[in-house]
Structure formats: structure tokens, C-alpha cells
């Protein structure tokens, strides 16, 4: 009998959707400046959308602990883990990066001239480089790959009961490294305080089952209060997206608390998740990668067909662009990302079968 895989927590999918939507709103700031005739409806409030990245990193830490359960001490399993992550990240990312490279080669004037200085090879393999990869949102995927490598090392050489100690050791080392001046993209990657969010999410994955449903409600309220306090404190900072240290301290804990509370409340049946929120959560990676294309195209179309410079028209532009981003993401997930994942997983299963057959005695 075939054993079905457990369904992912739908509350996490809803939070993925929220995080991706927040990033879209953050990038709508620039779209409104460029295509909105000089008006800014969103203003500084939309800068908080960058916190969607913080939630993504916390979710990654949470999920890495969940999917690693029972798989420690297996070096072949660690390689299998990396292969699955490769299949998850690269195919759709390569398509999007290829689209950017094609436009740069055919019509470079349509894009930021600074992109011409980026390395295509480094971009394709998400290697650290000054200025980030060709696809503007790809810098976060470089961090994700780093987190995956750390997880694979823990799977290969660590033990499950030592997860709290490994996380504490990483956090302490990272805290100490904040006092060390570093230069270069590789050193900045390894010492970035953004890893605290991954660590916080992993800690939430360890602790959430120990909560009662009522404690989950209290934790969720605390998370909301801390997030509002952080938002109020950082709202008017123009460098919100660049102050990783300050923002990490402000949002890592509320993001992790939200994950722990959401998982616990869903398990108790206290966190209903709408079908649309779960669907957009499934398509969150597609939304994250494709929204920059949609915003650029929608802005150019808007300038061509609609008057700009009024609050009403800007509001229509922002709403229609956001909806277009979500629709394109859902279609991309259904017809591109999901088939690519299925193809990659079949390829990986074929490789596994070949390895097993080769290890049998003759």
C-alpha cells in the first residue's frame, strides 16, 4: 500500500501568501513612483512590505526542521535533501533569469543599466556578487541556498536531539561576528544577521507542539503586538530595506512567534485557512519571481492607455497591478512551476532507483 505524504500546514501556506503579497506591495512603491505621475498613495507604509522577506526566512527555518525530522546522521540523505532543494529553487528561477538575460541582449535600454555589470554565471547559480543577481529578488535565494547548505551539514554530521544546541551555537557565533568588520559578498553572506530569522523559525518549529491552543492565542497576540511595535519604530526609516540588523532584531521574533502560534492553532482547528489563501501560498514562489516582470509590463501599459497623476487613477493602477501579479503567479504555478517540479521529482526518483539497483549484489 502506498503511504501518502502528510499535507503541509495550511497556515504556513497562508503565511507564505501574506509574505509574498507584502513583497509585491513593497515593490509597488517604486512602480508608483515610476508610472504614477509623481503621486504616492502608498508612501512610507508600504516599506513595511520588506518584512515579507523576514517572514520568508523564518518560514524556511521552520520548514527545514519539520522536513528534517528523523533524517539526521545520513550523508546520502543530506545529498538527497540538497537535490530536492535544487529542484525546488532553480528551474523556475533559471527561466526568469533567462528572460532578463534575453531582454538585456536584445533591448538593454528597457532595464537598469547597472544589470550589465552583473555576472550571468554567478546569477544563474546564485553565487554572491556585488549588487546581487540579474533577477532583482534573487539575492534572497542566495541566502536560502546558504541556509540549505547549513541544514544539509547538520543532517550529515549532526543529530536530531542536538538541534537546539546547534541553533544556539550558530546564533552565538553569528552575534559575535556582528562585531567583526567584513568586506566582500561571500563574507557578508556568512555573517549576515538575516540568518537570525532562519534560526528563529527553526526554534519555533521545535517549540510549537508544546503550546496549548490557549497559549497559542496568547503567543499570536504577543507576535502581533511586537510586529506593530517594530512597524511603528521603523516606519519612517527610508533605509528600511537595507538595515538588516535593525530590522532583523525587530521582526525575527514576531515572525517566529506567528509561525508557532499558527501551526498550533491550525492543529487545534482554531485557524481556518481559506482555499484562496492556501492556493496563493502554493504559488508564492511563482509570485515572488514573476511579480517584477508583471509590474514592469503593467506600468508601461498603464502609461500608454490611462491618464496618470490623480489619486483615483493611481489607486486603480496599484489594485490592478497587484491583482495581475497574483493571477500571473497562479497561472505560472499551474502550468510552469508545478510541471517542472513533477519532472524534477521524477528525475530524482529515477536517479534513486538507479543508485539502489547499482548497490544490489550481483
UniProtKB/TrEMBL annotation:
The answer to whether UniProt assigns keyword Transferase to this entry is: yes
Q: Which UniProt keywords apply?
A: Acyltransferase, Membrane, Transferase, Transmembrane, Transmembrane helix
Does this entry carry the keyword Transferase? yes
One annotated GO molecular function is: acyltransferase activity
The Acyltransferase domain is annotated at: 11-333
Q: Which InterPro entries match?
A: Acyl_transf_3_dom, Acyltransferase_3
Q: List membrane-spanning regions.
A: 12-29, 41-65, 86-106, 134-156, 163-180, 186-208, 217-235, 247-265, 285-303, 315-336
Which Pfam family, any one, appears in the UniProt record? Acyl_transf_3
Record's protein name: Acyltransferase
Species, as recorded: Xanthomonas euvesicatoria pv. euvesicatoria
Q: What does the record give as the organism's lineage?
A: Bacteria, Pseudomonadati, Pseudomonadota, Gammaproteobacteria, Lysobacterales
